[in-house]
Structure formats: structure tokens, C-alpha cells
Write a structure and sequence with these properties.
This protein is of the alpha/beta class. The protein contains 5 helices and 5 strands.
């Protein structure tokens, strides 16, 4: 693994501590800076402070779900170009379509693999920077 992921800022928003910890561990191993949030409200304040390169957001969360959170991120001029990857334990066509409508770039089904996480980062952050 090269240092291509070094110092990338990645945000993981999920109400599951296990998912947050899993993603954080995988991403830190390759050199990413990881910021986590337990729900959309916490995430929105942290996004402004941390300006992440990419955001992974769970769909099913209390208070503000993944669709609402993504829509709020995408409606903000500062962050509308930040890639948002939806995470869900459901792999439904409807969920994928709804994710697209609110502006997410990709949809990963949980449990995700290290390859899926890094692949999403490579595709939406690194390849974009290169082009």
C-alpha cells in the first residue's frame, strides 16, 4: 500500500459504535485522518470544523437520517462537491435511488470491506484530484 491515503480527511457518520470503530481502524491503518460522528447533527458541526475530503454516512440514524444529512451537506455551497458515500445494511434499489436523489456519489452495503472503503476514496477523491 502506498501513501496515497496519507493525510486524507475522512468522516464516518454512523450511530453504531462498531461500524465507526471498524471504519476508523481500517482508514487509520492506511494513514487517513478520521473524524467520526454519531448522527447527522453532530456531523454537521464537525464537517464545518474539519472540512473532510470524503464523507461516509449511515442511512438509518436517529434524529437526522443519512438522506437528510446528505441533502444538507449537498445544499451547502462549501461542501456540495464533497463526495458522500451512503452506508446501509439494506441493499435495496429504492434506497440506492433515494441516495442518488439527495446527491450521494456511491452506496455501500454493510458490512463493507476495507477494499470497498478504500476503493470509494480512490474513485471519488484521489482520481478526482488527479484529473
Amino acid at each position: 500500500m502506498s501513501d496515497i491515503y496519507q493525510d486524507l480527511k475522512v468522516m464516518v457518520i454512523d450511530d453504531s459504535k462498531t461500524i465507526r470503530r471498524t471504519a476508523e481502524t481500517l482508514l487509520k491503518k492506511v494513514g487517513c485522518n478520521v473524524v467520526t460522528a454519531t448522527d447527522g447533527f453532530e456531523a454537521l458541526s464537525k464537517i464545518a470544523d474539519n472540512n473532510p475530503d470524503i464523507i461516509f454516512v449511515d442511512i438509518m440514524m436517529p434524529r437526522l437520517d443519512g438522506y437528510q444529512t446528505t441533502a444538507l451537506i449537498k445544499n451547502n455551497k462549501v461542501f456540495q462537491k464533497t463526495p458522500v458515500i451512503m452506508l446501509s445494511s439494506k441493499d435495496g434499489l429504492f434506497d440506492r435511488a433515494r441516495g442518488r436523489i439527495v446527491g450521494s456519489e456511491q452506496y455501500l452495503t454493510k458490512p463493507f470491506t476495507k477494499e470497498e472503503l478504500l476503493g470509494a476514496i480512490k474513485r471519488h477523491v484521489l482520481d478526482e484530484q488527479a484529473s
